[in-house]
């Protein structure tokens, strides 16, 4: 199982598979998850950036069936079941696109 993106959606997908008999590969272009609802607190000096961000590997460290890869997904080959990440190809049986192109605001 390949999960693309280490945001809220990707982390939830990976965590829901923690007891499944499946190998999970989570791919993200950053090595940390940022709790975006609190970004305004950083902008107003209420919190430091380190207080709203955590390494993805640390968040999932107790989950033995997860591997976190740093890289940017550059394409898919759906018929071959391949995800292209920077300079390599990763085979999958299933994938979940836990990433978004635009931010999701809770009140919209």
Please give a structural write-up.
Helices cover 17% and strands 32% of the residues. With 108 residues, it is α/β, with parallel strands linked by helices. The strands form three sheets. It has a four-stranded parallel beta sheet with strand order 5-2-1-9, covered by helices on one side. It is built from three helices and nine strands.
Distance, first to last CA: 31 Å
Radius of gyration: 15 Å
The secondary structure category is: alpha/beta
Strand order of the largest sheet: 5-2-1-9
Number of strands: 9
Keywords:
about 110 residues; alpha/beta; four-stranded parallel sheet; about 15% helix; disordered C terminus
Provide a compact summary of the structure.
Helix content is 17%, strand content 32%.
What is the element layout, followed by pairings?
Elements: E1 2-4, H1 8-16, E2 24-28, E3 32-34, H2 39-43, E4 53-55, H3 56-59, E5 66-70, E6 73-77, E7 82-85, E8 88-91, E9 95-97
Parallel strand pairs: 1-2, 1-9, 2-5
Antiparallel strand pairs: 3-4, 6-7, 7-8
């Amino acid at each position: 199982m390949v999960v693309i993106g280490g945001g809220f959606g990707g982390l939830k997908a990976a965590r829901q598979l923690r007891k499944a008999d499946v190998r999970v590969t989570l791919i993200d272009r950053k090595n940390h998850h940022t709790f975006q609802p609190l970004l305004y607190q950083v902008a107003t000096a209420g919190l430091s950036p380190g207080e709203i961000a955590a390494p993805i590997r640390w968040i999932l460290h107790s989950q033995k069936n997860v591997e976190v890869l740093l890289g940017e997904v550059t394409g898919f080959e759906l018929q071959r079941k391949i995800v292209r990440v920077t300079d390599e190809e990763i085979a999958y049986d299933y994938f979940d696109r836990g990433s978004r192109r635009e931010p999701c605001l809770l009140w919209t």
